[in-house]
Amino acid sequence: MSLETVDFKYLNLTPGDKILDIGCGEGRHTISACLNERVHAIGLDLSLKDLDIARERYCQFDVAEDCYRRADFLAASGLELPFQDASFDHVICSEVLEHIHDYKSVLREIHRVLKPGGHFAVSVPRFGPEWLCWRLSTAYHTVEGGHIRIFRTRQLQQAIESFSMVRYAKHWAHGLHAPYWWLRCLFWSKGDQIWPLRTYHKLLVWDLMQQPRLTYWAEKILNPFIGKSVVLYFVRDNS
After folding, report:
1. Shortest CA distance to 95 belongs to which of 192, 215, 228, 187?
2. Which residues, in sequence order, are CB contacts of 6 under 8 Å at separation 6+?
3. How are strands ordered across the β-sheet holding 229-236?
4. Cα(90)–Cα(46) distance, integer angstroms
5. CA quadruple 168, 82, 47, 130: dihedral sign
6. How is domain 8-126+139-173+228-236 classified at the architecture level of CATH?
7. Which pTM was predicted?
8. Residue 23 region, left (φ>0) first, then alpha (ψ -120 to 50), else beta?
């Protein structure tokens, strides 16, 4: 199981597609792409530790033995992608841009490697829930490698559209997770083992592993109001 933010139904994957997952972390979207369809997915990240975990996780699935499904993991920067122009049918960049000072250079690189007519899925923390986290804890957004900005959805959309892309879908995700992070920020100095946080974390793990209908529908209801992430989908024009 993995906590996916991007919904693959909006990408319309087809056999043989090539997918780039920028800032793949431990491989949640890279691996899920291969589970969804017979594609070649490449996960890219700067953390060698996370990439090693991603490789180990991928090998645990039977799809690793399917020659028509392939996942590779590469250490590289989104600021200078080591791929030729128009190399990918789809690009994913989930919960990454809020960490990067020169995020528009990453968008420029994404446009370069994405095929005309290709799809781009991006997610960032949603303004409202993220703003509250920043107000509840300074440490939340000043830790090394942490968030350096809060995006407004319109701001991000306009930045991406300036690179000849058109938005065709939007949704929110992780409504159940926003209250956890508010609690985490409120009790930041006390650590994450105090009772409210431990209890809520157990709920989130239970939801991830068991996927009960109750929490499924609870998150569906909460997402439009307090979804922790906003997810946007774009298609690159033919220019």
Report:
1. 228
2. 29, 92, 94, 121, 123, 231
3. 70-75, 40-45, 18-22, 88-94, 114-125, 229-236, 165-173
4. 20
5. negative
6. 3-Layer(aba) Sandwich (3.40)
7. 0.96
8. left
Note down pLDDT in tens along the chain; length 239 residues.
Answer: 468 999 999 999 999 999 999 999 999 999 999 999 999 999 999 999 999 999 999 988 877 667 788 999 999 999 999 999 999 999 999 999 999 999 999 999 999 999 999 999 999 999 999 999 999 999 999 988 889 999 999 999 999 999 999 999 999 999 999 999 999 999 999 988 899 999 999 999 999 999 999 999 999 999 999 999 999 999 999 86
Could you give the angle at which helices 177-186 and 195-210 cross, rounded to 10 degrees? 160
Q: Where are the domains of the chain?
A: 8-126+139-173+228-236
